[in-house]
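Task: fold both queries, return tokens.
Query 1:
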Amino acid sequence: MQALLVIDMQQGFADSRWGRRNNPFAEARALQVLEAWRRTGRPVAIVRHDSTDAGSPLRPDRPGNAFLPGFAPNGGDWLIAKTVNSAFIGTPLELRLREAGVTAVTLFGLTTDQCVSTTARMAANLGFTVTVVGDACACFDQIAPDGRPVAADLIHLAHLTTLNTEFGRVVLAEDLIQSLESLTCAPSVC
């Protein structure tokens, strides 16, 4: 069985402190994937980052901790609250997946280079088959250790490339949705 992990789709990532972001269509694609996934009846884990950093907009006592519209847990979705980059550290996620018989995870979210990448890598190391929906992820510009600016597009591409090379596969939202629809489409109407 396969589960969907929705990583940190929270209002705090709209805060200007993060800087310039790539992929302005990530949320729209992510919502399309989430809706299609829910129609399959397979497990969905909604992961929320509850920052312990005093200045973070993602702290539980800040408005930025709230989910972006459409990404709050729905029905039987699991809510997984984390305080570090990996959705597996200090949470019941691995146990819930194992108890449900899940052997593969598909994930997307914010940000590509931090919580998405860390969770995907750890999922692979724990033995799960990993799929990342690349165009349903986004990240922000960074500053390299030598002070040079690094564009979000480059960071995003580098992380998706290494994830696809070593830890799983990266797919487009449209392709994933088509494959999900073929699983849920009755032969009489397909």
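Query 1 returned. Query 2:
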Amino acid sequence: MRRGSHRRSIGRKYKQSSSRPGRNSSTSLRGIPANAVIRVSFDSGWSAVRKPESQDKLWSEFKNQADQWRRDTLHTSSLTKMVMHPSYLRIIGMGRSVLPLLFKELQERPDHWLVALNAITGQDPAPSDGTFDEAVAAWLDWGRTHGYLG
């Protein structure tokens, strides 16, 4: 077999196969669980992934991580240490689905959630020369405007 011909034959096999989900495929969605989310990509076709857990589970996980973060950083004055704490990073890792919970938490108990909000949304509505309270107010306004707070 010539060098590189193996890759070409594999490519032909996949393009001719209808059992591989993706472009050039006629595979149906039959057999995929009802709670699955279908992700579509121009490069690799579609794939089924598990749907995120229920809001109750998300709330419970958020609350556990936020409580742990608060306990572990209670006497920490370094903002860098606060935002690099594993629980804080896990909350950021929850993504956009955690935004309503973060805004509710910020509204009820203002704390250093501004870095997490910025990391998740990519926005920063807080005035650059403002105080912490002004930054919190700006974020709460942003949350209301974008439908994360009632």
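Both queries returned. Flag for query 2: Residues 4-27 have pLDDT under 50 and may be disordered.
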